[in-house]
């Protein structure tokens, strides 16, 4: 298993990891989880709103505005609720530590997910390396 030279995709993976760890450290687990939950909820709301507004109007600009406003509202509400819930469960020092851990786990999950796609294997030596690790691990069983 020799490592190929780093590509632009690999640099993006590394940059994503560094940025995620810094955000995890500064915002803590509560902020990181709140952001992730709010982003997922806002995405689902925007997708459903886009479909629903087709019944009301065929004008794309109206659908975009309504979907964006709803997504931003859902984002703000979910972020506030999740942050309050998680803040009550964790003390400050452990919140920062768990923020770093969650950020690292998210970055590892993204790399291993990318290693399952052929597109990432073509453009990323890190994804190829992760794919070989998974293949070797499954061969031992």
Instruction: Round the mean pLDDT to the nearest integer and report it.
Output: 79
Largest sheet: none
Q: Can you give the helix content as a percent range?
A: over 70%
How many β-strands, per DSSP? 0
Separation of termini? 19 Å
Estimate the global geometry from the Cα principal axes. Answer: flat
From the alpha-carbon coordinates, what is the Rg to the nearest angstrom? 19 Å
Count, helices: 5
Quickly count the domains.
Answer: 1
- Residues in β-strands, percent: under 5%
Give the structural class.
mainly alpha
- Helix and strand pattern: HHHHH
Low-pLDDT ranges = none
How would you describe what is shown here?
The chain is mostly helical and 141 residues long. It has one domain. It is built from 5 helices and no strands. The protein has helices spanning 8-56, 60-89, 92-114, 118-123, 125-139. It is flat and about 50 Å long. The mean pLDDT is 79.
């Amino acid at each position: 298993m020799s490592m190929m030279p780093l590509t632009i995709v690999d640099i993006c993976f590394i940059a994503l990891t560094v940025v995620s760890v810094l955000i995890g450290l500064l915002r803590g687990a509560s902020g990181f989880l709140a952001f992730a939950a709010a982003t997922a909820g806002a995405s689902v709301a925007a997708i459903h709103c886009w479909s629903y507004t087709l019944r009301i109007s065929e004008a794309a600009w109206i659908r975009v505005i309504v979907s964006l406003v709803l997504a931003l509202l859902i984002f703000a509400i979910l972020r506030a609720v999740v942050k309050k819930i998680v803040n009550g469960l964790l003390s400050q020092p452990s919140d920062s530590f768990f923020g770093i851990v969650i950020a690292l786990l998210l970055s590892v999950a993204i790399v291993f997910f990318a290693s399952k796609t052929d597109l990432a294997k073509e453009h990323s030596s890190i994804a190829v390396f992760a794919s070989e690790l998974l293949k070797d691990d499954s061969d031992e069983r």
